[in-house]
Design brief:
6 helices, alpha+beta, Alpha-Beta Plaits
């Protein structure tokens, strides 16, 4: 469930407002989105994934999980979902094994990773 918008990091791009499928955020006069309907959050993580500056924290729990902002910032959890998926600043392609990165630098994935190898092969054939 969405728990935190870090005002100091937010660049007021409103991507979180646009991407949220359940309309949890609300635009404010300051430009920093407010968590207006936290109870509607489905913990889909889309807002955190698409935030270009890692200003959001979504708790993996589906119930409110009050957090300490300073503790979350210090812990390195901001942007951890993007990193876990191999995204880089809200863009796919942050991982060295991402098919787009592999193709750009003409590298092959680890041969033991059957899934990435298959994706790489499909990418070469222009299927994806």
């Amino acid at each position: 469930m969405i728990e935190l918008v870090v005002d100091e990091l937010c660049i007021k791009c409103d991507r979180c407002i646009a991407i949220c499928p359940t309309n949890v955020f609300e635009a404010t006069e300051s430009g920093i989105p407010a968590i207006a309907r936290q109870e509607d959050c489905h913990t889909c993580m889309s807002c955190e994934l698409h935030c270009p500056v890692d200003a959001l924290y979504v708790s993996p729990r589906g119930v409110p999980d009050p957090v300490d902002k300073d503790e979350i910032v210090r812990s390195g959890l901001l942007g951890s979902y993007q990193r876990a998926l191999g995204w880089n600043r809200a863009r796919p392609g942050g991982s060295d094994d991402d098919p787009g990165v592999l193709l750009r630098f003409q590298r092959k994935p680890d041969p033991d990773d059957k899934v990435r190898t298959k994706l790489h092969d499909l990418s070469l054939r222009k299927y994806i």
